[in-house]
Structure formats: structure tokens, C-alpha cells
């Protein structure tokens, strides 16, 4: 059975809340004692936020080193773009010569690139394709299905329609002393000048990458995300800072954007009929050791 048993209680609670039409609307009205102008209206039972872009975009000018890019010798072309242009799509092959990468990280990426280019693994690992959590900040790259929010006075929940994965952000100003490494780590947040600012540490390194070029990280990864909504309330933007002195020679800055989707949360089960039918040596999907029920 393909499930994350430790997350089942969160799935059950989040889906119940989303289905209760009005849950998020009621909670957001009391999300904080801060002035309402400081709190972006992320949550609603009637809309979510969707991206159709599975790669980081360049950050605002002047912020510093941007995201890891494709290897210049292997330009990336998505299925959608290839279909539009009548060309062949390509694999995501990351630039291992980026000066921001420590030697071990570049070597790990190079090994993954070579495996794909030799055809040993015809489709490199991508969390959303193989039903794994995307980690932080990688989960923000889940495309084609919306993410929904619930805002309460003490927590903000981010809930992805795909597999109903749940990430919780505690509205406090201090991290735990020694957080246990986890898929989404320990996230704390606050509202600041109309932005939702999230600080995350305690991230697991198991099949966890900061992007879809399979850029790795250590357990010292520190991520700061700043979420804001456009004046017309139609676009959600996250500007992300990634620091990991064990992996990068300098911080990375990246951006992701979503458009508003005026629809309640649906149900998508990633693992159903999602097998390696064409013998491409795909990464296995996660499976529980025993039934949850």
C-alpha cells in the first residue's frame, strides 16, 4: 500500500476541513491579532493556487545567485513546449559546473545525469511523478494541481491536492532546539508587510532535492520563503532563499508563481495505476510496510 502512514492523521483532518466548505473562511478571519493589511488572504474553501511550471524562475534583480540551471550542453525542453513546437522533449540535466556547488554535490548530480544520459534510468527522479513528498523548497514546484491554505491563529497549513500532502507552519518566532529531520522539516512563520514569511530547518535528506535537476542538500539546509499576493489577488508569488554551507558556496535565490484557481479541492491519488509499465527503471514509489487500517 503506497502511503506515508505518519501523515495519515494530517490527511484525514485536512480533507475534512476542506470539505466542510467555510472552514478556511472562518479561520482566516481570526488568523492573527495583526492588522488585516499585513495578512495576505491565502486561504479559501473556494479557491487554490496552481502553477504549470516545474522549475524555479529567476529571483528579483539584485538578490544574488539564482537557481541551478540546465547543463548548457543539454538544454531542457518540457513535454508541453516540445508538443507546441513539434520537437522531442528532453531530460532535466543540471549544470554540475555551477560555481555555487560544493564538489560532492556536483559529483552527485553528475552521477545522476550520467545515469540518465546512458539510459540506465530513462526518467530521472521527480518527487511529484513518483508520489514522494517534494521537501522544502522542492514541494513548491509541484505543477498542474493546486495547493490550498488554511490560516488559523497558531498555524498555517499548505495542502496539495495531489495526494493531499500537508505541510504545517507554526506561527511562532523560535525553532525547536533539535528538530527531528522530516520531509517538510520544522517551519515557523509570521506575517510581515503583507507577506507570509516562512523559516524552515530540520529537513531530511532522503530523496530530497531543492529542484527537479536533483540538486541535493545536507541536513543543515535553511530555507526562507516569502509569499505575497498581487494587488489584483490573482497571482501568488514565493521568493525563496536557500542556505546550506555544506552544499553551496553561497546562498541561492529563486522564485515560484501560482495563478488563482476558482475551484474547491479535488482528490488525486498519485499511486493508483502509476507503475513502470514501459520498463524505464523508474524510481520505486513509497510503500508502507503494513496496512494503515
Describe how the helices and strands are arranged:
Elements: H1 8-19, H2 23-28, E1 48-50, H3 79-85, H4 103-117, E2 147-151, E3 155-160, E4 166-170, E5 186-192, E6 195-201, E7 222-229, E8 235-243, E9 252-261
Parallel strand pairs: 4-5
Antiparallel strand pairs: 1-9, 2-3, 3-4, 5-6, 6-7, 7-8, 8-9
End-to-end span in angstroms? 11 Å
> Main beta sheet, described?
9 strands, mixed
Unreliably modeled segments: 1-32
String of helices and strands: HHEHHEEEEEEEE
Mean pLDDT: 87
Strand ordering within the main sheet: 1-9-8-7-6-5-4-3-2
Number of helices: 4
**Class by SSE composition:** alpha+beta
Calculate Rg over CA atoms.
Answer: 19 Å
Overall shape? globular
Number of strands: 9
Helical residues, percent: 10-25%
Strand % is: 15-25%
Please provide a written account of the structure.
This protein is of the alpha+beta class. The protein has a domain at 5-69 and 136-261. Helix content is 14%, strand content 20%. A hairpin with a 5-residue loop joins strand 3 (155-160) and strand 4 (166-170). The longest helix is centred in the middle third of the chain and has 15 residues, at 103-117. The model is unreliable at 1-32 (pLDDT under 50).
Short description:
The protein is an alpha+beta fold and 293 residues long. The protein has four helices and nine strands, in the order H-H-E-H-H-E-E-E-E-E-E-E-E. It has helices at residues 8-19, 23-28, 79-85, 103-117, and strands at 48-50, 147-151, 155-160, 166-170, 186-192, 195-201, 222-229, 235-243, 252-261.
Amino acid at each position: 500500500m503506497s502511503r506515508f502512514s505518519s501523515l495519515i492523521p494530517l490527511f484525514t483532518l485536512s480533507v475534512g476541513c476542506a470539505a466542510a466548505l467555510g472552514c478556511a473562511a472562518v479561520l482566516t478571519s481570526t488568523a492573527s491579532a495583526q492588522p488585516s493589511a499585513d495578512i495576505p488572504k491565502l486561504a479559501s474553501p473556494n479557491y487554490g493556487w496552481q502553477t504549470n511550471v516545474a522549475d524555479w524562475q529567476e529571483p528579483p534583480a539584485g538578490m544574488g545567485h539564482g537557481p541551478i540551471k540546465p547543463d548548457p550542453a543539454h538544454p531542457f525542453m518540457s513535454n508541453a513546449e516540445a508538443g507546441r513546437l513539434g520537437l522531442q522533449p528532453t531530460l532535466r540535466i543540471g549544470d554540475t559546473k555551477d560555481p555555487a556547488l560544493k564538489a560532492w554535490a556536483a559529483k552527485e548530480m553528475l552521477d545522476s545525469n550520467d545515469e540518465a544520459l546512458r539510459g540506465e534510468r530513462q526518467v530521472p527522479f521527480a518527487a511529484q511523478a513518483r508520489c514522494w513528498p517534494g521537501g522544502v523548497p522542492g514541494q513548491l514546484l509541484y505543477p498542474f494541481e493546486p495547493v490550498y491554505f488554511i490560516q488559523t491563529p497558531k498555524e498555517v497549513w499548505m495542502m496539495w491536492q495531489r495526494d493531499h500532502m500537508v505541510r504545517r507552519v507554526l506561527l511562532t518566532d523560535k525553532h525547536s532546539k533539535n528538530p527531528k529531520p522530516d520531509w517538510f522539516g520544522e517551519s515557523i512563520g509570521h506575517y510581515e508587510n503583507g507577506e507570509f514569511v516562512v523559516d524552515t530547518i530540520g529537513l531530511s535528506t532522503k530523496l530530497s532535492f531543492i529542484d527537479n535537476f536533483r540538486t541535493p542538500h545536507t541536513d543543515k539546509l535553511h530555507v526562507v520563503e516569502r509569499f505575497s499576493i498581487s494587488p489584483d489577488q490573482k497571482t501568488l508569488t514565493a521568493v525563496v532563499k536557500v542556505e546550506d554551507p555544506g552544499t553551496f558556496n553561497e546562498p541561492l535565490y529563486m522564485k515560484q508563481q501560482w495563478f488563482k484557481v476558482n475551484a474547491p479541492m479535488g482528490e488525486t491519488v498519485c499511486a493508483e495505476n502509476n507503475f513502470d509499465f514501459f520498463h524505464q527503471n523508474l524510481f520505486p514509489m513509497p510503500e508502507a510496510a503494513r496496512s494503515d487500517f
